[in-house]
Automatic annotation (TrEMBL):
GO terms for cellular component: apoplast. This is Dirigent protein. Belongs to the plant dirigent protein family. The keyword Secreted applies. InterPro entries: Allene_oxi_cyc_Dirigent, Dirigent. It is found in: Secreted, Extracellular space, Apoplast. Dirigent proteins impart stereoselectivity on the phenoxy radical-coupling reaction, yielding optically active lignans from two molecules of coniferyl alcohol in the biosynthesis of lignans, flavonolignans, and alkaloids and thus plays a central role in plant secondary metabolism. Its main location: secreted. The keyword Nucleotide-binding does not apply. Keywords: Apoplast, Secreted. Homodimer. Pfam families: Dirigent.
Length: 195
């Protein structure tokens, strides 16, 4: 009997631990849709405001276009704005206005003609950075681009890497446009809050 008492005590202790941990499990993990977090828990420090400046090269002509039309409206559409066309892009972002200047990233996504009475594009894209401390980080843009306005402003709706929780805006100014080929160079100034 003396030998079974320690075994019984051990069995009772294990049972108590198992039951108490299973009672806590629903409170901490199961059935919980959301919970509040602190910035500290997420490793977030002080929010910063950064300014990025680069040039966007939208190349629709030649042997290696970086912007390709993937859809267009039916032939019955007589809109002068090209209403309904969709273009997939993987445009280089460079430090200077020349395509030969240092590559800092790529603009990847789509733009589509979303206005019937003017050239107004819906921009849905990511700036994917490949240079410096932002290498591997992205910024996401979702907004309207009225391409013939001198300055256009589009919202930054998020990001990844060093741009997690990003918000801000991108200002675009057309630097050059070739009306025959459609190729364009656009200067971007991006102002973004991030941690």
């Amino acid at each position: 009997m003396a030998k079974t008492l320690p075994k019984l005590a051990f069995t009772i202790l294990i049972t108590i631990l198992f039951v108490s941990s299973s009672l806590l499990l629903p409170i901490t993990c199961q059935g919980q849709f959301s919970r509040k977090l602190s910035k500290k828990e997420m490793g977030l420090k002080r929010e910063k405001l950064s300014h990025l400046h680069f040039y966007f090269h939208d190349i629709v002509s030649g042997k290696n276009p970086t912007a390709i039309q993937v859809a267009r409206a039916a032939t019955t559409n007589s809109s002068a704005t090209g209403f309904g066309f969709v273009v997939m892009i993987d445009d280089p972002l460079t430090e200077g206005p020349n395509l030969s200047s240092k590559l800092v990233g790529r603009a990847q996504g789509i733009y589509a003609s979303a206005a019937q009475n003017e050239v107004g594009l819906l921009m849905v894209l990511n700036y994917v950075f490949v240079e410096g401390k932002y290498n591997g980080s992205t910024l996401s843009i979702l907004g309207r681009n009225s391409v013939f306005s001198t300055v256009r402003e589009m919202p930054i709706v998020g990001g990844s890497g060093l741009f997690r929780f990003a918000r801000g805006y991108a200002q675009a100014r057309t630097r050059t446009i070739d009306l025959k080929t459609g190729d364009a160079v656009v200067e971007y100034n991006v102002y973004v809050f991030h941690y």
